[in-house]
Write a structure and sequence with these properties.
Layout: E1 2-6, H1 11-24, E2 29-35, H2 53-65, E3 69-74, H3 86-101, E4 106-109, H4 112-117, E5 124-127, H5 136-145, E6 149-151, H6 160-169, E7 173-177, H7 189-199, H8 218-229, H9 232-236, H10 245-249, E8 255-257, H11 265-277, E9 298-300, H12 308-313, H13 319-322, H14 324-332, E10 333-335
Parallel strand pairs: 1-2, 1-8, 2-3, 3-4, 4-5, 5-6, 6-7, 7-8
Antiparallel strand pairs: 9-10
Helix pairs in contact: 1-2, 5-6
Length: 337
């Protein structure tokens, strides 16, 4: 098992993650990932700390000293077409050169053009979940473009037939995100990634005068309200319990990514411990990245979900005629007082 863990971006957080790995013997932690510079472009998630190239070099050297790889996230779903201009291309080329000189091991991208750009560098090219790779065909396309690893769309996390088909179709590494709590088949997903791509590019000249100054996050608010009204949607979300990682290893998946780089380092370390130990006693929602606020509303005893993976593995994903998750919700979910 290889754990790929989130890093908020500031050096002190990395030191804490490394200290826990060393003191508790968490050899499964192989790689950390953090956001790239918003001066260049945005990313698909909220960014807690804007890391400068000089900081990336220093932190990468420190991570390497402790046997950890460094991955930089450059995964906006929208660049406004600026990457296809001469100025935009040269800026991205300069940035990738700087990351390479800083000793970065890999770069995670969503834009196919950037996948091809990275073929010119020795850094590992990782396709982001923002690319929505959900079939053998799409995985093969990205591998042909130059992908060394693919983070599959979380919507297929419980579709083992599809995961196995993707494994057969490509030779690159397959990564699954274990703790994303987004709605299954979320109608806001594409638009929300696009929004983050713009609002996290706070200073990038690529976006010019088109940088967003929003008054609220409509998609996040609707996402929360849907689950408060219908908590069974939480069960349908494609998260993976720490106890169920072995089911994925049986089909050859060894790379497990913990989402949550915009969270506190204490929350991240709690997740690292749970997934390294392959078990967790407590509220499952304590481990889920999105949306974290649900843990203050609901309590789901993680141990009460033992064995559910077997049903989900054979699920036909026809929620209107199944009812398993709705009944399960009535049994295990409690409202917090």
């Amino acid at each position: 098992m290889r754990l790929i863990v989130p890093h908020p971006g500031h050096f002190e957080a990395l030191k804490e993650i490394v200290a826990v790995k060393a003191s508790e013997g968490l050899s499964e932690v192989k790689e950390v990932f953090m956001a790239g510079a918003p001066d260049i472009c945005g990313s698909g998630r909220a960014t807690l700390h804007a890391t400068l190239v000089s900081e990336i070099k220093e932190q990468t050297e420190f991570a390497h000293q402790h046997g950890i790889r460094m991955n930089i996230i450059v995964n906006p779903s929208c660049l406004g077409g600026q990457h296809l201009t001469y100025e935009g291309f040269k800026m991205l080329e300069w940035y990738f050169n700087e990351l390479n000189k800083a000793g970065v091991d890999g770069v995670t991208v969503a834009e196919p053009f950037l996948v091809e750009m990275l073929r010119e560098y020795p850094m590992e090219t990782v396709v982001s979940c923002v690319s929505h790779v959900d079939s053998p065909q799409k995985a093969a396309f990205y591998e042909e473009l130059g992908a060394d690893a693919i983070t599959v769309d979380t919507n297929i996390n419980r579709d083992f037939e599809m995961l196995e088909a993707i494994k057969r179709a490509v030779s690159c590494r397959i990564r699954v995100i274990v703790n994303e709590g987004c709605l299954y088949k979320c109608p806001f997903r594409y638009a929300h990634f696009n929004l983050f791509s713009h609002v996290t590019a706070t200073r990038s000249p690529l976006y010019g005068q088109n940088r967003a100054d929003i008054f609220s996050d409509y998609y996040f608010d609707r996402c929360i309200s849907i689950r408060v009204r219908d908590p069974s949607q939480i069960m349908k979300s494609p998260w993976i319990r720490p106890e169920d990682l072995s089911e994925y290893e049986r089909i050859g998946i060894e790379d497990f990514k913990i989402a949550g780089r915009a969270n506190t380092v204490h929350w991240i370390i709690n997740c690292i411990r749970a997934y390294s130990a392959r078990e967790y006693e407590g509220n499952l929602l304590d481990l889920l990245d999105c949306p974290a606020e649900l843990r203050y509303i609901f309590y789901i005893d993680n141990k009460a979900l033992e064995g559910c993976i077997q049903k989900w593995k054979s699920c036909g994903r026809k929620c209107d005629s199944c009812g398993f998750c709705a009944e399960l919700t009535k049994k295990v979910l409690k409202w917090r007082e």
